[in-house]
Amino acid sequence: MSQPKHTSPQTLCKGTFATVKVSPEDVLQESPTDPVEMSDPPSDPPASPSPDVSARQPDARRPERVMVIVAHPDDADFGPAATVAGWVRAGSVAELVCCTSGDAGGEDARTDPLELARLREREQRAAAEVVGYQQVTFLHRPDGALQNDLALREQLVRLIRTFRPDAVLTMDPTVLIHDDGYIQHTDHRAAAMAALDAVYPAARNPMAFPHLAIDEGLEKHVVRWLYLFWTDKANAWVDTTASLDARIAALRAHQSQIKEPAELESRVREWALEAGTLIGTQAADAFRVVELP
């Protein structure tokens, strides 16, 4: 089985914290640049090899409140979109956080990065509407130069303490080079590590960023689960048979990034089937799940 392969567009955008409520958008505006063909988007990674497939069972947990933290617009849709869509349809509430706005995700150096950022934010909002997120937040951090610094951690802690999720989903930051040779994007690693550092110990430590509690009334919060995707150490598989179409529809919203949507759909279905066969379903997402004390 193939490991995740994803060349996520890089951006360079400075800005302030921006939160947008998701609203349906029937028509996406045309990209200011020619579409970018994604090279091998990320698959749902397999678990460590094991001959005893019958011992695996679909992960039955369904967090009531879910936060997904990623580096770029489209990361969440190449990642856990089917899982989140299934949970939302079963009654969960989900929010999405994009650390950057993807404004270096073009093939022409003359592209206006701010126009591209606006386009990619529109695309992500449209995709989020399909999946069922109640809110999307863009942190406007520099794409291609994302850093796990205290400023980013504070932003994430503020969001976590405000929304108070049971589970946080992000990339597996421990993966530098996947088994198949794919190098984990620097922004993916930075966003994922920032998410982990925000979840533990910062969000649950009342003395971390104390002004959040004193001035903003945001008391500490304990996240129960971490779901890490694009991992080589999967230990949980979520059945996405009923929600895979939502993931594919969400991916189609990223028109500036996907040149051949039909081909991508075929590949996404193949990846989902590969993961699903491990638990006896038609489709699945694979995760490294960490239950926090």
In words, what does this structure look like?
The structure is a single chain. The protein has 293 residues and is of the alpha/beta class. It has a domain at 58-120 and 165-199 and 214-293: LmbE-like (Rossmann fold), CATH 3.40.50. 31% of the residues lie in helices and 14% in strands. It contains eight helices and eight strands; from the N terminus they run ββααβαβαβααββααβ. The protein has helices at 75-78, 81-89, 113-131, 150-163, 186-199, 211-214, 244-252, 261-277, and strands spanning 18-21, 65-70, 93-98, 135-138, 167-171, 225-229, 236-239, 284-291. The chain has an eight-stranded mixed sheet, with helices on both faces. Helix 3 links the parallel strand 3 (93-98) and strand 4. Helix 2 crosses helix 7, helix 3 (113-131) runs antiparallel to helix 7 and helix 7 (244-252) packs antiparallel against helix 8 (261-277). Mean pLDDT is 86; it is low at 1-53.
